[in-house]
Design a protein that fits this description.
- This protein is α/β, with parallel strands linked by helices and 338 residues long.
- It has two domains: 93 residues, no CATH class; 193 residues, no CATH class.
- The strands form two sheets. It has a five-stranded mixed beta sheet with strand order 4-5-8-6-7, with helices on both faces. It has a three-stranded mixed beta sheet with strand order 1-2-3.
- The N and C termini lie far apart (59 Å).
Amino acid sequence: MKKRELADRILSMLSTREWDELKKGTAHVPVSAYNREVLVRLAETADELTGETDGKRADQIADRVRRYLIEVWPEEPDAHKYVVASCLILTLLEEKPMHPPESVKYHAEVREGKAYYYCPARLPDGPVCALCLALPWEELEVRRQDAIRRTGETYGALSATVQKEILEAGFGESGVVPVRLLRFHREVRQCCEENRCGAYNTSWACPPAVGTLEECRERTERFAYLQLFSQAFLLEDSMDFDGMKRAMKEFKATVARLGKRMKSILPEARILSNESCGRCASCTWPDRPCRFPEELYHSLEGYGFNVSELAGQAGIRYMNGPSTVTFLGAVLYGRSEE
């Protein structure tokens, strides 16, 4: 079945009056804000849908969701079709989980342009969850434990601990590079000094605030390992600049979460992050000290690292396919003499 065919079937589930009420927010039956957003989005974008979907699965989802709602929400039978429609849109047209992200803390990984969602509320034998696109949380745990085990076998228990913290903070991939193998590129630092990203001399996280390239190298070489990590995000398309900004904000929040975890177990470790800081609307550099020095993470690029080269050394993806953006950071840890 073509996605557009399923979209037409879903659109026909509601009358013209009901679609108008949804768009105005005046529906005469209870519709959650999340479901309303999903439905209105389909009404506005149905003409743009391409590709195939699973018609048999659509029938299974619709049947199971209806039967489930009859049992748990019998007092609002007129609202059931709105929920059924939302579940079909999310799972088969948008290829997302059924549940609102704010109510269930998914872990999402983007691999080669496709999102894989892991859901802690997934019930494999449940009435509806068994048909949700999201994967069981246990599968994510198996992937994480396998990655931690392999890291420990190669680089030791300390690296395995850092890997565990990185993955549990919410990052998708991570890989270790011994500091002795790192290269510090003067031409990358030159790009900073040419202000190609617009952050030079504007932030405590970027040059010249982070020091000279030689000072950055000396600071780095006090450690034994650099463990690179990444977080990938889906975009509407390659020109989705608003999506890129939202993704960067989420990435920085995940870096901050990792920073708090690392301080409790390995306070001497240093975290580096993609690009500038962005925490404050206006940085205090160079007139006053950083407002949040405990949450200041220097720029990877400012240290002269070629991020795509680092990704290759660490064995993780630098890019994750079309209509995605991937951000990277790193943890420096372990004594250099080790």
